[in-house]
Amino acid sequence: MQKHANETYDVVIVGGGPAGLNAALVLGRSRRSVLVIDEELPRNRVTRESHGFLTRDGIAPAEFRRIAKEQILKYPSVTFQSDIVKSATGRDGDFHLHLESSEVVVRSRKILFATGMKDVLPDIDGLSEVYGTSAFVCPFCDGWELRDKQISVIAPNDLSLHFVKMISGWTKHLTLLTQGSPFLSPDQHSEIQLHGIVVIEDEIKRIESLKGYVNHITFRSNPPVKCEGIFFLPTLIQSTDVSEKLGCVLSGNGPVMEIDTDTMGRTNVSGVYSAGDASGAPFQLISAASSGATAAAAIQLDLLDAEWNRIQ
Ligand SMILES: Cc1cc2nc3c(=O)[nH]c(=O)nc-3n(C[C@H](O)[C@H](O)[C@H](O)COP(=O)(O)OP(=O)(O)OC[C@H]3O[C@@H](n4cnc5c(N)ncnc54)[C@H](O)[C@@H]3O)c2cc1C
Q1: CB atoms within 10 A of CB 163
Q2: Where are the coiled-coil regions (predicted)?
Q3: Ligand 1: centre distance to CA 219 (Å)
Q4: Residues 34-69 pLDDT 10s
Q5: Which residues form the domain of 96?
Q6: Ligand 1 pocket, 259 CB below 6 A?
Q7: CATH number of the domain to which 111 belongs
């Protein structure tokens, strides 16, 4: 909860995923007053287990955040508020944040956008029912659990060769589904077939599941394909346009638009920082946490600079 309507926080962190939480930890330990405002819809909320974060491999996403908050709240200058930041105005040293559920304007000297990305799923009947149980987006996150299984890779664009090659590191039993797009060149077809990968260039009718797990996939014309797991390419979009409207420049890494920052997380707008998925790949919990810690260090150094110079 916000302590005082008139308080100016040193830092408001928008977003309480690993990037925002690690930043809050570092800033709390730096004796900064910090408000974390979080809509509480992190990217990985659909999964039962998170993988690849040292000491936390296999943890449920909600448990990860619970432990993080418990440890951060040991530092009394950090508070959390569950809300959506609708807009932000102002300038370095005096930002104003406007929230969805209250008229109270939150004021801060610095803002960190750790707002993450949203996955827009391809429009395939049955996909949302198995997303997070047996359909995933990242083999580094969930490939181990699907190792040696019969996997369908849904990739109806020019990333398909790259994506199927990546997933071949975890299983050799692969079917590439192009959703009816005949975009593979004859050379690419030969290359894929050389690796024993079946290609189906037919539109998917439905992903059929049993007890929440994918079982088989049906097509417009082709016979059904048995399947124990799916990897697919979502469309990644920014979770919010608040940073862009405040003047932050975004640029494209392929089709994905990311907030531009320097190596410390500083954006082009003085006093505004970004960390985690919102400002770039690799889209991993540990990378997001690491960039949150880095941005927090930059914020602390910039605040110290301003305070030091004010006294001179
Ligand atoms: C299905 C799936 C499984 C994954 N599994 C793994 C895994 O096993 N291991 C791994 O390393 N990575 C995994 N990832 C990737 C991982 O989830 C992300 O890299 C990571 O969550 C990024 O952290 P973040 O803090 O940048 O953003 P997020 O964790 O997405 O957190 C951003 C937060 O900001 C909030 N927010 C956004 N806009 C606003 C606003 N305007 N106001 C207030 N709050 C706002 C959101 O609600 C959210 O709580 C997975 C991703 C997906 C999609």
Answers
A1: 18
A2: none
A3: 32
A4: 999 999 999 999 999 999 999 999 999 999 999 999
A5: 8-118+236-311
A6: no
A7: 3.50.50.60
